[in-house]
Write a structure and sequence with these properties.
Elements (H helix, E strand, L loop, with lengths): L4 E5 L6 H15 L7 E5 L5 H9 L4 E4 L16 H6 L4 E4 L2 H6 L4 H13 L3 E6 L3 H6 L2 H13 L4 H4 L3 E4 L13 H19 L1 H6 L2 E3 L8 H5 L6 E4 L6 H17 L1
Parallel strand pairs: 1-2, 1-8, 2-3, 3-4, 4-5, 5-6, 6-7
Helix pairs in contact: 1-2, 1-12, 5-7, 7-9
The chain binds phosphoenolpyruvate (PEP).
The site of phosphoenolpyruvate has 13 residues, from strand 8.
C-alpha cells in the first residue's frame, strides 16, 4: 500500500491574517484524523515561517513556491534555498507553468534550482506539463519527456530519491478543465516508464507523481484512484480548508481501498 501526497499551492493569495486563519483551520480539521496521506502546504514566501510554526504542532509539511537558482548575493527580491531551510521548509515547487510562462524560467535555470534545493536538503516538487497546442498536436509526451530529461536526469540515484513530480497540463490549470482520469493515467504511466528506464523499477515505483490541474473535492477520488496517480497538487481548491480537507479525505479513501 502506497500512501498519497496532497499538496496545496496557494499561489499569490491571502493576506497575513487570511493565511493564518486558513492554516489554523486546516490544522484543526486534520487534528484528529489518523492520516496516511502526507499533506504539504505551499503558502507565499512571506508566510512560510508562520506556516512552519503552526506545522510543528500539526501533521503537515510546508513547501515554498519558488527558490533562487543562485546561492546568495546580489539577486534583489529573490529568496535562497538556505533561507528557506533556515525557517524549516521541507519542500519547494519548481517549474510551475506560471513561472515558466510569466517569468520565462528555462529548463537550465530549473535544473540549477533543483540542485540548490537538494544541496540544502529541501525536496523539490517538479512540475511538468503540456500546453493545449501540444495536447492537440499530439506531441505532449515529447514535451513532458524533454522537460523531465532536461531538468532532472542529471541527478544521481541518491539525489533523485528526493524528487516528487507533478504532472500539470497547462490547459487544466485554473481553467476548470480537468484531465480525465484516463488522460492523467496515460501521462503518469509514461513518466513512470521514463524514470524506470533511467533509474530502475524500484525508483519508478517509489517516485511520487502527483496530478495538478483543476483537481477539486468532486473529481479527486476518480483521479487519485488511477494506478499511477499518487496524489495531487491543488491550486484553487487549496484556498478553502473544507475543500482541501475533502481532497485529503479522497486520498485517504484511495489508500485504504488499495
Ligand atoms: C496549480 O497551480 O498547481 C494548480 C493545480 O492550480 P488549479 O488547481 O487551480 O488548477
Amino acid at each position: 500500500m502506497k500512501n498519497k501526497i496532497v499538496a496545496g499551492n496557494w499561489k499569490m493569495n491571502n493576506t497575513f491574517s487570511e493565511a493564518e486563519d486558513l492554516l489554523v483551520a486546516i490544522a484543526e480539521s486534520i487534528e484528529d484524523m489518523r492520516l496516511e496521506t502526507e499533506i504539504i502546504i505551499c503558502p507565499p514566501a512571506l508566510y512560510l515561517e508562520m506556516a512552519t510554526d503552526i506545522a510543528q504542532e500539526s501533521n503537515f509539511y510546508v513547501g515554498a513556491q519558488n527558490v533562487a537558482y543562485a546561492e546568495k548575493g546580489a539577486y534583489t527580491g529573490e529568496i535562497s534555498a538556505a533561507m528557506l531551510k533556515s525557517v524549516d521548509v521541507d519542500f519547494c515547487i519548481v517549474g510551475h507553468s506560471e513561472r515558466r510562462n510569466y517569468f520565462h524560467e528555462t529548463d537550465e535555470e530549473l535544473a540549477k534550482k533543483i540542485d540548490i534545493l537538494l544541496a540544502n536538503q529541501i525536496n523539490p516538487i517538479f512540475c511538468c506539463g503540456e500546453s493545449l497546442t501540444d495536447r492537440e498536436n499530439g506531441n505532449f509526451k515529447q514535451v513532458i519527456e524533454n522537460q523531465i530529461k532536461n531538468t532532472l536526469f542529471h541527478l544521481s540515484v541518491e539525489q533523485f530519491e528526493n524528487i516528487t513530480i507533478a504532472y500539470e497540463p497547462i490547459w487544466a490549470i485554473g481553467t476548470g478543465l480537468t484531465a480525465t482520469p484516463q488522460q492523467a493515467q496515460e501521462v503518469h504511466a509514461f513518466i513512470r516508464k521514463l524514470i524506470e528506464e533511467k533509474y530502475g523499477t524500484e525508483m519508478a515505483y517509489n517516485t511520487y507523481i502527483l496530478y495538478g490541474g483543476s483537481c477539486n473535492a468532486k473529481n479527486a477520488l476518480d483521479l487519485f484512484s488511477c494506478t499511477d496517480v499518487d496524489g495531487g497538487l491543488i491550486g484553487g481548491a487549496s484556498l478553502s480548508a473544507q475543500d482541501f480537507v475533502e481532497i485529503v479525505n479522497a486520498a485517504e479513501t484511495c489508500t485504504k481501498n488499495d
